[in-house]
Amino acid sequence: MSTIATSLIETARNVLKIEAQALLKLADNMPEDFPRLITTIINCKGRVVVAGVGKSGHIGRKIYATLASTGTPSYFVHATEASHGDMGMIVEGDICILISNSGETSEMRDIVAHTRRFSIPMAAISSNTDSTLMHAADFALGLPDAAEACAIGMAPTTSTTMTLALGDALAVTLMHERNFNAESFQVFHPGGKLGAQMTRIRDLMHGGDNIPKVTPEMPVQDALIEMTSKGFGIAVLINSEKIIGIISDGDLRRHMHHLMEKTAGDIASPDPVTVSEDTFAADALRIMHANKISVLVVADQENHALGILHIQDLLRAGVA
């Protein structure tokens, strides 16, 4: 590696170390008002309104988006726009989180006054614990003293990273307190690959007469007709209405000698991999990869066959 490349990597590594150390310092010095803020948000009848300008505004947008997608109704208001009509978006029952590294951002004054006038709870995130904003706040979330990572010590770097991390801590703690689970997450993320991965396989599987079922005493030629007609490349061996095995292409090849003289029970593999219909599509895909198979049998607790899931069903749904 050239000297120039080494120098560039060292500069970048130094930035990451400075910010990482600041995050550890924040973890060891969590704001005392943090627990009270969590309780207030949990009991909030309205929404969490996040506001900021400049880089703090960009961070605020990410914080509100994370809150909204994890079960906490939230939106963002630009402090300047609030002074020109958007103040009406902040109403009684809401709670505000205002972000200003200096705590003296002039654009915040109107929102602060609005929250005081209508008794709207207000939290402030700032590095300046002795600032006007922090003194006005009901919940003061002060950031520990830490140098910015930029060469001149002025560009928002460490401070914005700590603010973003504190926002994540807020959102995840709220998730924990609300028992926000994977199924809840899917409700807020129905689109794209993430939404597809959180789909339950009951919505993707083939059930009823589409399931290729054979019995142990069925001649192999009849089993082959059932496999071919359903088009999944397998047949589910059923006895007394319960799954006892499966016939795959591999089973056919392993029993090729005198194949047509055998029954379905002679060639089936016992104890096939099954999943419940409540399994997430992403988990079904992982199970397929782990077992090197392309088809899953969906079964209930009594081991009755409910459906068939092919990897192509996952591909069509956008999971894989």
Q: Short summary of the structure?
A:
The chain is of the alpha/beta class.
Task: Describe it.
The protein is α/β, with parallel strands linked by helices and 320 residues long. The chain has two domains: 3-180, 3-Layer(aba) Sandwich (Rossmann fold), CATH 3.40.50.10490; 201-317, CBS-domain. The chain is 44% helix and 18% strand. The chain has 14 helices and 13 strands. It has helices spanning 3-28, 34-42, 54-69, 79-82, 109-117, 132-136, 158-177, 182-188, 192-197, 220-230, 249-254, 264-267, 281-291, 311-317; strands spanning 48-52, 74-78, 95-99, 122-126, 139-142, 206-207, 213-214, 234-239, 242-248, 269-270, 274-275, 295-299, 305-310. The strands form three sheets. The protein has a five-stranded parallel β-sheet, sandwiched between helices. α1 crosses α7 and α3 runs parallel beside α7.
